[in-house]
Amino acid sequence: MGRRSVVDVFEQVEEDLRSDRYRRMARVWLPIVGGLLAVALAAALAWWAWDSFQTSNASKASVAYDRGMEALQAQDLNGAKAAFEEAAKVGGGAYRVLALTQQAGLAVQREDVPEAIRLYDEAAKASRDPLLTDQAALKAAWLVMEGKLDNAKFADVQKRLEPLTQEGRPLRPFAQEALAMAQLQMGQIQPARSTFVQLQLGQDVPEQVRQRAQAGIDTIDSGTAPALARIVDEMDRLGVQVAQAQAQAQAQAQAQAQARAQTSQAAPAAAAPAQ
Asked: Using H for helix, E for strand and C for coil, what is the string for 151-219?
């Protein structure tokens, strides 16, 4: 019995020691664990709030974009512009890229090329996915290429196109083709021919691009390529002359219409005394 009592005492002491140790551990670790749980809960709630916000914005952007497309089909260009501006403002990622691209297309229709380039550039930066952005970047480069190229414009075009010509980019053949055309306009015949040869022989090159590349090679080999820059200059001057002639004809038509309107208004006034 005495030995049993001593054992019970030892067990009681060990139990008390364990309890005291657990209490000390609890005092040390419970605040830390509680703080970690609070941080995790706050992070989870923040993620949920952000995800809900993004989902809500995506839904709003989708509705606005669809409204813009419907306005385009109805030829309501002002309504389409307002809807696409809303979609670009509230949306992110794909919807922002698409909405900005549509706005740029409307600017092209208004012949506001600088604004179109600005919008295409903005669309090209609105996502990290080249499947979405490279098309906008390529369209901006083509707009910069319009008309006569000088050294400054060619440097801008080259800067825009070279990233799009890298291996693995989705519109690489089209960017290479555009760069070759710019090189031809600048009189860089051999670099342009090398690019056309790459396109003609390359894999995964669309057939229409391959055919145009072969046409470019034939043009260079026939010796007519150096005349392309002069042809572009003449076409540019011709376009200016046509625009001036159209403006003069429109002004004359408006003047004639005003003269007829004044004549028709003066006729009843002259006939009034005779009555």
From this structure: HHHHHHHHHHHHHHHCCCCCCHHHHHHHHHHHHHHCCCHHHHHHHHHHHHHCCCCCHHHHHHHHHHHHH
40-67 burial: b if 16+ Cβ within 10 Å, else e: eeeeeeeeeeeeeeeeebbebbeebbeb
More confident residue, 251 or 224: 224
Distance, CA of 266 to CA of 275 (rounded, Å):
15
For residue 162, give every residue at least 6 positions away whose Cβ sits within 8 Å of its Cβ, in sequence order, or none.
179
Q: Which two tokens stand for residue 258?
A: 């005003």
The model's pTM is 0.65
Q: How far apart are CA 22 and CA 94, in angstroms?
A: 55
Cα 188 from Cα 230, distance rounded (Å):
14
Residue 202's alpha-carbon distances to 107, 199, 205, 206, 207, in angstroms, are: 35, 5, 6, 10, 11
Alpha carbon distance 106, 72 (integer Å)? 9
Residue 240 has pLDDT above 70, yes or no: no
Distance (Å, rounded) from C-alpha 115 to C-alpha 190?
34
CA angle 202, 205, 211 (to 5 degrees): 95
C-alpha separations of 270 from 146, 195, 263 in Å: 55, 75, 10
Helix, strand or coil for residue 242? helix
- Residues 6 or more apart from 126 whose CB is under 8 A from it? 92, 93, 96, 97, 100, 132, 133
pLDDT in tens, 121-149: 999 999 989 998 999 999 999 999 987 78
Burial status of residue 149 (CB atoms within 10 A of its CB: 0-12, 13-18, 19 or more): buried
